[in-house]
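User: structure tokens for Peptidoglycan-associated lipoprotein, please.
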Amino acid sequence: MIKRMNLAIGAAAMALVMAGCSSVPLDQPPVEDKKIGTLPQQPGGGGTQSKVEPVVTDNAGLTNLGPQNVARVILFDYDSYVIKPEYQSIVDGHARWMKANPSRKLNIEGHTDERGGREYNLALGQRRAEAVRRALTLLGVPDAQMEAVSFGKEKPAAMGSDESAWAQNRRAEFTYR
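Assistant: Done. Predicted tokens:
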């Protein structure tokens, strides 16, 4: 019984000490609540109305569009990841747009045709995407704006098992975020 009373007295004394050590002065006036972005009260109206502007994440709705009038696909020869000279203007167009829009991000997706094993096609698709990324880097696009990914043969552009379908599937695609 005495032990419980000593504990209760000790706890009360500790609470008094803690209240005395408080760093918040209690004798000062309370902090005035100044609301930012409130409208002045309307005559005859009651209360205030919050003025919160809606968040605009994309001014023109161009998140996935990227540059206009520039193709988004570069085709490759069989078992190759060399960008042909005929696609240089596409790479230039995307590089200019990326430098003009530094907040945008670009995915470069590498693809292959259906021939070859899964691991081989993933590696070849990655080499194609990396080749395009390096070309953009040489034209001044910051590396932080781009990501090279490989889909291998998983997302074919054309179905079929002939040269026409395979030629369309050996590609790198530009996808903007």
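User: Anything notable?

Assistant: The radius of gyration is 32 Å.
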